[in-house]
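Lab notebook, bench 4. The sequencing result for the construct came back, and we need a structural model before the next group meeting so we can plan mutations. Quick request posted to the team channel:

Model the 3D structure of this chain.
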Amino acid sequence: MVPLPFCTAIVELTQAQGEFLSSLPCAGLVVEPYMRCSLEAGHRGRHVTLAQGSSMTDWWATWGTEDIHGEFLVLPNCSITEPITEDACVLPAEHVGKHSFELV
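Done. Here's the predicted structure in token form:
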């Protein structure tokens, strides 16, 4: 069996967190009650995933192994692009591990 390249950690959102994310101006994502970490499997540090894209602002959910619901932060996007395909990394700046285009 080939191991998955992505972390499998999930975080459960409270109803209030879901309502907050859905109420952001120009919210671009459907908010689900659970979110999965977007970093590579086996990464160190906190988990992270895009929680909502809103009016040119990305809100990221971040949580640790002991957190049940996590927290939201506005973080800049990673500025690295793949040199041949020019695919942009869709993770936050200064993320740990591989860039998103390396995890396919």
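The first strand starts at residue 10 and ends at 12.
Will bring this to the meeting.
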